[in-house]
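As agreed, record minuted below.
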Amino acid sequence: MVSLLLLMLLPSSLADKVCFSISRSDINITTPHAVILDERINTVKCKLDEFPCVFLCTASNMTWFNGSSFCLDTNLISTSATFTYTVQQKLTCSLYICNETVILPLIYSLYSDSSDLKAITQLFYIRESCLQLFSSNPVVKMAYINVERRMIHTIMNTSWLMNGPMNYRLKALSLNVFNITETDLNSAGNKLRIQIEAPQLLPQNKSYIPEIWLPVNALHTIPKERRVIGLVSYMQHSQFEIKHEDISSMVLRIELLEEQHLYNLKTSIQMIFKVDVHRNMDNDSRLQCHYFDEQEGLWKTNGCETSTRTLDNQTDIVCNCNHATPFTVLLIREPIAEVHWKILSYISYIGCGLSAFFSALSILVYVFSQKHRKDYSISIHVSLSGALFLLNSTFLLTEWGATVKPNWVCVFIAVFMHYSLLSCFTWMAIEALHLYLLLIKVFNTYYKHYLVKLSLAGWGIPGVIVAVSLGLNDLKQLYGVTKMTMADTNQTNAICWITDDTFFYSLNLAYFSLIFIFNSGILVAVASSIVKMKQVFRRNVKLGAETMRNTWREMLKESCRNGITVLGLTCLMGTTWGLAFLGSGYVNYPLLYLFSILNSTQGLFIFLWICQSDKKQRKRELENRTISTPMTTAGTKSD
């Protein structure tokens, strides 16, 4: 026998009818717009034109048996994101699109002071129907966590009036409610803590349930008529993976009646988690106790100490915490040590300051030199210097901007830094393109308005990308204050930058990856060309003892010059930014220092490159004047 309350879902399409098909394993529902399959034990699949959706029905006096299959006439009321079907006088079903603007109000509307489990069951169902939204949207996750906590307290407020502990085994969690009496506390004797039983999810997972020990002195401070403890074990914990944390144990929630709090405890709460210490472990990772800060939506370690206990070849993680909140054990990849973090920060700030200064100097030299303006290569170098000046200058303002009011100041800095970063990447690609035309494709390289076209691409493409991103602000705030947290200290650092990680990686990483591949290909081609010229030089050498010694000296010098040239081109085309790929996923201090030094001082390197190019050009002009002085020129060749 299946209650209509549990069949909130369905597939097949009939106009003006809602059809139900009930079996032992699932419930199929078909509306004029969507197909829903409720597998009851596993997942819910609701599709509206291939988009996920939520299908909810009100209660009805009707009960249907397994094997039932029927269609009911319906009246439809629709909006842009919802469809409401009035099937019978006491049965109304609604279809909701899985997006933030629709699901958030639906989640908050479920909360009430009612003591039944209908609302929390529907809350679980909404998450199952919109798994993709819940996995990618931290705002929806936090709304779910807050509403779920309120519903748990609603259940606790009713349960404490009953005799003995109460257990609620729901689809997504298991809740134990204890009314701790004076007898329970007195039975502890001289012990500092008493043990209470954590909820069991499935019989086969009994060995996975943690041991919970609460401090006796803290419980004595709670009035006996309000000494009610709620323990929650979660069947799955995806809603707590705010930043894709690697949760390695059960997530355990400890709640007190009427949202009282245990904090700054002299005797800590002790939890012994049973985890598989070999899962995903390596030399650069460790298991650490964390609590969930429900105000900031972050896993933290403040007030929690981690130790290990080995019994019968089983290693357990022991957590001692001085407050009661959701707890778990996270697998932590070894973070950057605080001392290295500070050194890298100093290198970045000093390097960016120097880079901004020398980039500005390159621009000034270019502005006051008529000769440089005729050289396309110098003009492109200076354009890249201009983009680096903007990037370094805005980077130095990011922390200051996060503390300034009004908020639009921080948004402006974030937008301008994003534009500057994309401009740098674009001008690096232009450097590679120009080098290809100059050294590889030597012939037929004249283009009308060449520099103007490059400038439109270098400054225009990033402008279009940022303008489109700003146009999406009505759908989601992409720029503003972003908090960066050091994993080993929980220290947060607020900066002005892109607030959405998905947008950051999908756009910036993809854009730079394409440029990095293109520039690396050009760099390899140029290096190959240098090697080929060296081989030609060797073949033209005449044998002889003294000549051979001089030749090898010249070849050694030439090799050093070629190596420096390739290194300079590497920096000029931004391929040093590719070090970020090598260091992703783990901490490699040599790569981090090399990345910070090379990329924060890129403006200085380009200034030195411009000076060296100018020096070579003056030397060539002097040699040309020296050769042409005693000779009479017959004519001049013009391009």
User: Anything to note?
Assistant: The chain has three domains: 2-97, 144-333, 338-620.
